[in-house]
Amino acid sequence: MRKRDLEISLQSVRNFEDPNPSLEQYMTPAVIAADILYTAYANGDIEGMKVMDLGCGTGMFSIGAWLLGAGMVVGYDVSDSALEVARTNAAGFGADIDFRKSDIRDVDEGADTVFMNPPFGCQNRNADRAFLEKAMESSECVYSIHMAETLEFVEGFCRDRGRSVTWRKTYKYEIPHTFSFHKKAKMSVDVAVVNIR
């Protein structure tokens, strides 16, 4: 599958029906998800591997990993409504993905590769730290999205735990008007995607 074909496929992934602001439920844009997934695929981190999607939302990374030949895909989220949409999305692709409800701290299995777009901590300060901890506990290879301005912190956080950021890329992340506190129809923020090993 070419990256462009992956991106086109992921554009059909349905968004949250009733997003929860406290969980910072924003769907990862298909163009960014496809680029991250294809980078991981090229690095040998997807095909035939066990992949976990922490805070999977509506299943963007889970479905993308399945499309790229992951041997097993497990998606975790705390939101029933997000998981319902994720299961519907996966069914639309005929994708065999195991979606499970769990607080991130209670995940107790490992994987070859973890993907995640954790909360940025805008609503709940330091919300991404539990995700980083769990991801590094669960896998030796993590792809994660963070606010670009926090990249130095993320690198230090990983270094303190014996890991390093081996790859990074910055994207413009479009956030549509989703919640009542949003003032603009759409806003753009800089995010950094990191590969932690």
Count of individual beta strands: 7
| Helix-and-strand structural type | alpha/beta
Unreliable stretches, pLDDT < 50, 5 or more residues?
none
Distance between the first and last residues' Cα: 26 Å
**Helical stretch tally:** 6
User: What is the CA-based Rg, rounded?
Assistant: 15 Å
Percent of residues in beta strands: 15-25%
The whole-number mean of residue pLDDT values reads 92
Question: What does this protein look like?
Answer:
The protein is globular. It has helices spanning 3-10, 30-42, 60-67, 80-93, 127-138, 151-159; strands at residues 50-54, 72-77, 98-101, 113-116, 142-147, 165-176, 186-196. The model has no long low-confidence stretch (mean pLDDT 92). By secondary structure, the protein is of the alpha/beta class. 32% of the residues lie in helices and 24% in strands. The protein contains six helices and seven strands; from the N terminus they run H-H-E-H-E-H-E-E-H-E-H-E-E. The two termini are 26 Å apart. Helix 4 links the parallel strand 2 and strand 3 (98-101). Helix 2 (30-42) packs across helix 3. The chain has a seven-stranded mixed beta sheet with strand order 3-2-1-4-5-7-6.
